[in-house]
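QA checklist item 7 of 12: single-chain prediction sanity check.
[x] sequence parsed
[x] length recorded as 343
[x] structure emitted
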Amino acid sequence: MKRAAGRRRRATVLVLVALGFLLVPVSARADGASCRDVYFPVTLVALPQTMHGTLCVPSGGANTVQVLIPGGTYNSSYWDIGYQPEIRSYRLAMNNAGYATLALDRLGTGRSSTPPSAVLTTVTEATVVHQVIQAVRSGAQGPRFGKVILAGHSFGSGTASIEAATFNDVDAVLVTGLAHRLNLVGTAAVFTSTYPALLDPRFATAGYDPGYLTTVPDSRYSIFHAPGPKVAGAIAFDEATKDTSAYEQAADLFPLGIIAPYSLLIDRPVMVVLGQDTVFCGLLATDCGTASGIKSSESPYYRLGADLTTYALQGYGHAINYAPNAPDYFRAVISWADRKVGR
């Protein structure tokens, strides 16, 4: 009986290890890139904070790093999806193409510190990202990179645009999951699917103040993935790695990062990538059906003669890194980055 109990315990451990491997981000696995955790000391409105990132460098090294900012209620795992990473990991695709990547946890998410939500806005977050970029260029926290591509998704794209427009310190900007014309019905659906993070069992004891929010359980497919296929493993990974955002971040994201043409101040090459996004696409919103449609919709929000490239990913919603055809958009980004910046 003791031997049988021991076998059962060993079998249970093996199952748990196997499941854990499936959910560990791909950066923990061997894929030709060297990955490590990096912690950046930053200042947010005079408050000392720490921003965590995962830095991955191809085996042959790289002169260009892509600094990756996730969207609201996401953390750095959005850029390194552990379910079928060969299809869905943006980080892996870029490393395989010869680019280094630094996937950040926004403040209040992942392994970054958690400031009071009242001081965490799009503008203050852009200031913090600027500090990270300075460290990346100087080599203060590791390798020194000569070129920086700043990439964002959703809220992270708003942060990236404001950072690039304000500080003029990057070589190119990738905007995904964000446009300047809103689908109000889709936007309302996202907000009605959120609630204070302290009410969520995952975050209830983590010390979040009432100004932090997250998505209600089992809502992420409908607001972030539809009309794409509902792939159980992908949606489970998204639910398992969901994170927080702050109400204050929307207070200046919408008027400054979306509605106002602050992006007119960006004087570097920009690429905009959208899926069939229920938040930004629609008859009275952005024309997301084709790359030319996106460009026509978005061009008025960038300076005259802007170096603007667009790409329309077919068949998926807001969280385009999860799309089964995400490699198509990854290849388009690599081609754009090779032309505009180089490795």
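[x] summary fact logged: The first strand starts at residue 33 and ends at 44.
[ ] second reviewer sign-off
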